[in-house]
Specification:
single chain, alpha+beta, Ubiquitin-like (UB roll), 2 domains, 15% strand
Amino acid sequence: MPFRTILLNGKEVTAEYQAIGSGASESSEILLYWLREQFGQHGPRFGCGLAQCGACTVLVDDVPTRSCVVQLHTVEDLAEVRTLDGLSHDEKDPHPLQREFVELQAGQCGFCINGMIMGSLGWIEGRIAGGDRSVPSEDEVKAFLSGAAPGNTRNYICRCGTHTRIVAAIRSAAEEMAR
């Protein structure tokens, strides 16, 4: 079986993965399952399996990525993969997005929270890296979450109805992150 080495939440890790075929016909284990089963990363969740809901979102080289459809052989060796599990190494000092989601009670069932936080993290960090340190407006956050924002074609689905608190949590965390 082949191996893949990545930088998982800042730590270099290596594990085997299942692969079938080779060349253009190669297929392999899905990144989501590999992260959960090999490394105990339970933040990313299996939702739809079609890259449509966002529950499985992780950052791969700072890009929000739907891990439920990414075959592991397509992930570059030493790619940086960040998951919700690695955002904070200390419960007393959570990442601003984690803290705001808890303080504003933005999660009801909690199933979508991984995608909301990781997708928003990649989006906000991308804005900041591009020189935009402004706090996104409510409409910008809603456009991001719906997949209508420039450069974002992926939506994030929440069925519980905490949308206003999710938007508020993202905006509040963005304010802190942009400082």
